[in-house]
Amino acid sequence: MDLIVENENGLYVPEADVYLDPWRKVKKAFISHIHADHCRYGNLQYICPRPSLPILKKRMGPVSVHGLDYGEKTTVRGIEFSFHPAGHIPGSAQIRVAGQGRVWVYSGDYKTRSDGLSQPFEPVKCDTFITECTFGLPVYKWPKQAEVYRSILEWWNENKQNGRAVVLQAYSLGKAQRLIHGLREGPGPIFCHSAVQQMNTAVRKAGFDLPKTRPLTKKLGKEDLKGALIIISPTAFTGHWTKVLKTYETASASGWMLIREAKRRRSVDRGFVVSDHADWEGLIEAVKATGAERIICTHGYQQIFSRWLSENGWRAEELTTEYGESAGD
Amino acid sequence: MKRFCRLIDRLDTTTDTNKKVAYLAEFFDRTEDADKLQAVALLSGRRPVRAVSGKQLRSWAADESGISDWLFEECYAIVGDLAETIALLLPNPAGESSDSLSSWLLRLRNLKKKNGEEKRTFIVGAWSSLSKSGKFVFNKLITGGFRIGVSQKLMVRALAKHTGLTENELAHRLMGNWDPFETSFKQLIYDRDESVRLSSPYPFYLASPLDVLPEELGDGDQWLAEFKWDGIRSQMIAREGRVFLWSRGEELITSSHPELEELGKSLPDGTVIDGELVALKKGVPLSFNLMQKRLNRKRVSAALMREVPVALIAYDLLEWNSEDIREKPLYERREILLSLYNQLNHPKLLYSDAITWNQWEELEEMRVHAREYYSEGIMLKRRDSTYESGRKRGVWWKWKTDPLLIDGVLMYAMPGKGKRTNLFTDYTFGAWDGDRLIPFAKAYSGLTDEEFRSISSFVRRNTLERHGPVRAVKADLVFELAFEGIAPSARHKSGVALRFPRMRRWRKDKPASEACTLEELHVLMKKFQPE
Ligand SMILES: [Zn+2]
Ligand SMILES: [Zn+2]
User: Fold this and answer.
1) Which ligand is nearest to the CA of A300?
2) Same domain, residue pair A170 and A95
3) How many CB atoms neighbour CB B469 within 10 A?
4) B445 inside 8 A of chain A by CB
5) Which residue has the higher pLDDT, B502 or A92?
């Protein structure tokens, strides 16, 4: 029998009667990370990686939640559960589920290359690996992080010399902190929109070393923001700010920026390829490292990636989940 | 080539037109003439002859990238652009070719004569010597379609900065038939040969969509109003006994319109008319689709000329007695045009009459009903305006009728290109025929990202059938579609074809059963169809 199955509420472990990242309200949920499509409201009990605790509390308010250290095991009805670093965002994890001689790993979202802030990805041996494949297409090959940061800094610097602010659109949890950390040597102050500031506080509370950032308040005027980097989520960048800033340049930091049309659709001046997911090679590398024979693909280009895996000797299947509609990229 | 690629990359890093012009001008300043000329040719839509097919490119690229054909096709479908897909998939070389743009183009030009194997060797060799952006540009050169978000207008502005000539002068010099391999930058820009000058049209002046209240245009007496026709904006040139008919797309279309060539021969030498080429039967315009039938032919049969007779509706006169009269005010140009029209009295030449009106409200009334005159709106031109070039705002406006509207039911959905595969953005809509839905329109724009997301989620949960990437969904969602015209069509199951359909809004208030019927579509079609 399969250790993990899908039902209308989400990924389910029948023998333990618990769910992993459920999309409907359930009694007991193991949460891989605190992105909205993986951690939803209304569950009776949450169990998450310990470094995600402050973030979960900030997002979910007062709920019943229990934190586990990476590698720490807990047993539910004879089935063993543990979290292992996924490298996706600060505090993110893969979930290992083991019982009666079987070991399954559900990857959550992950990336195999270290971003310098999140706990780096650690492959976990298993027989069945449920993997995300948001960027499961060979066109996705990430450039080196250092190169991308260098071009963001160049862009910021050039605009600063022209007396302009730059607006970098990034998802408020994960991507924003990664950028703040990576761009801390930049030529000016970093201002963050309130949603980003809140996440910064939670991430600092979880023990991550983030440089100081300033809140982007409505009191600020054009002069205060000259030469600054503004980090804001795409939806929060409203007419108010375009009026205040007058001249500025915008950019989006996301894996989707690799494709010209995607950049055009976001109508930003610049697109920087910064992703919190594994690229094509990363996915293959991760699959190999688990040693699993059976691979279940979900969350993205599952049809394509599972077909490729099948052609290359794995037992691969696809699973359609409801992840990936609102989350980090 | 490197410098040109860098230009293309830089143009992509900004949406600010001034910056784009600055990048282009800098490129012109730093590049030698041969490459400048090639760049001007590419950026004014002159593409190299196509020597290899997309199919060949796809299969060679799949081989080179070491992936199966199906996987390559999936990538292509998602990226949506072949040149880019190949650039993304193939590995990048350590070194990079330093050959010039013109030498690459010359080799491409000679490729046509080579056999399949030689072609393959050349192209695969090019891929392995070019960087990612080099590959992208190179692929764009092979596949034609070089569209990179730089209009000819911007290029001309930059060229004006670089050469010190005026934009009008340059635009005129760049029109017509010229081949970058048979002329030089100096010849093209500074001293052009006589036979080219003979056939060259003037750059078209285009009206901008009216985006202010008509009252804000001030005194109505200063404005000329004409009907706007849904044909092909064209220029007829009669010089030294020869006739040239140009479309706005800078294509010479004389040979597909022999009856207009006849008309041209009866014009006095040194005359250039700006007008609209329309298909006209018994004084009533035929649908645009019919006219396109003619455009696509190099030679037309007598039968087709009878089926789709064409005429020229004259708007303006640009050259008279071999003199460029674009600087004269519009009313003077039109006076000469009218007397020419009266004198000639040729069945193929019509005169675009001015609409008589007194109050803006009266004109508004005309605009609303323009479709009943088979027109798609009203043109407003300042009576004293000179003939500008390009889309200069302020003196010529087009004031279109509001679109036609109809409610359709979502039947099929397909993922969009170049975006998340998870988002369904391309839709087919149906109309009721009894209790069956018949597809009648496709649309993929007009909604917010938020709406696309929630529709995608609906599609995923309500899929009835899958045909490749296309999903048939439960008849439940209704959308208001806006479109510009409706014509009979034998190619469509519904029997009608809509012009420019797009989604106007999601009608969450309307149950699917109350969406439009096939009959309603046909009634609407007949209303706008002559005969
Ligand atoms: Zn995530
Ligand atoms: Zn996710």
Assistant:
1) 2
2) no
3) 15
4) no
5) A92
This complex has an ipTM of 0.93
| Residue in this structure with the two tokens 């030294």, named with its chain if needed | B240
Q: Are residues A131 and A31 in the same domain?
A: yes
- The CATH H-level superfamily of B404-527 is Nucleic acid-binding proteins (2.40.50.140)
Q: Does A146 lie at the interface with B, CB-CB under 8 angstroms?
A: no
What residues are neighbours of ligand 2 (ion), with CB under 5 Å?
A 109, 323, 327
Rounded distance from Cα A118 to ligand 1 centre (Å): 13
Contact A300 B79 (CB under 8 A): no
Structure tokens at A148: 């991308």
Residue A88 lies in a domain: yes
Strand segments (E) across chain A: 5-7, 10-13, 18-20, 28-30, 45-49, 65-68, 74-76, 79-85, 93-99, 102-106, 128-133, 165-169, 190-192, 214-215, 229-232, 248-253, 270-272, 294-300, 315-318
Decide: helix, strand or coil at residue A33: coil
Q: What is the pLDDT of residues A163-213, one digit of tens each?
A: 999 999 999 999 999 999 999 999 999 999 999 999 999 999 999 999 999
Contact call for residues B1 and B97 (beta carbons, < 8 A) = yes
Parent domain of A282 = 5-139+277-318
* Cα B145 to Cα A139, B82, B137, B148, B404, distances in angstroms: 22, 11, 11, 9, 32
Q: Give the count of Cβ contacts less than 8 A between chain A and B.
A: 66
Give me the torsion for CA of A214, A220, A223, A228, rounded to 10°.
30
pLDDT tens digits along B347-385: 999 999 999 888 888 888 888 778 777 788 899 999 999
User: Same domain for A52 and A163?
Assistant: no
Which position has the token pair 């000679």? B110
C-alpha dist (Å) from residue B54 to A139, B51, B76, B121, B526: 18, 10, 11, 16, 41
Q: What is the pTM of this model?
A: 0.68
- Assign B404 a pLDDT band (cuts: 50, 70, 90): confident
The fold of the B206-400 domain, in CATH, is D-amino Acid Aminotransferase; Chain A, domain 1 (3.30.470)
The total of other beta-carbon atoms located within 10 Å of residue B220's CB is: 16
Residues 6+ apart with CB under 8 A from B166: B160
Closest CA to B49 of B129, B117, B106, B1: B106
What is the rounded CA–CA span in Å between residue B374 and residue B288?
A: 11
- A240 lies in the same domain as A266: yes
Instruction: Tell me whether residue A259 is in a domain.
Output: yes
Percent above pLDDT 70 for chain B: 95
Q: Which residues pair with B427 in a beta bridge?
A: B413, B443
Q: Tell me the average pLDDT across A306-318.
A: 94
Sort out which chain B residues have CB atoms less than 8 A from A279's CB and list them: none
Domain boundaries, chain B: 2-143, 206-400, 404-527
